[in-house]
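Researcher: Let's do a round of design. I'm pasting the structure tokens now; please hold your answer until I've finished.
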């Protein structure tokens, strides 16, 4: 697995490698912010993931997920605060993301 020093370094490299969509958590799906397309937990795979911890505060942790749709037509990234999920996120999404933390 590749090692990155910063979150921005990881995001830039993943974008160069084709993970160009910005995904966001939205209730029971992840959503592409630009097109509005959504993927449920069973519609995507997490190809890679990287954890980052803040230099001054260990609570400033985040995870970047490299995500690919099951049909391989959509590739992008999802950045999430490590271990912190809104109560509005479905259990299926939490389970899928937690496996990779």
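Researcher: That's everything. Go ahead.
Model: Designed sequence:
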């Amino acid at each position: 697995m590749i090692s990155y020093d910063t979150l921005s370094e990881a995001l830039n490299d993943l974008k160069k490698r084709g993970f160009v969509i910005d995904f966001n958590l939205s209730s029971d799906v992840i959503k592409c912010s630009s097109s509005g397309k959504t993927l449920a937990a069973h519609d995507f795979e997490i190809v890679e993931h990287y954890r980052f911890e803040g230099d001054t505060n260990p609570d400033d942790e985040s995870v970047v997920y490299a995500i690919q749709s099951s049909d391989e037509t959509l590739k992008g990234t999802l950045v999430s605060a490590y271990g912190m999920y809104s109560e509005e996120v479905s259990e299926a999404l939490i389970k899928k993301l937690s496996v990779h933390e």
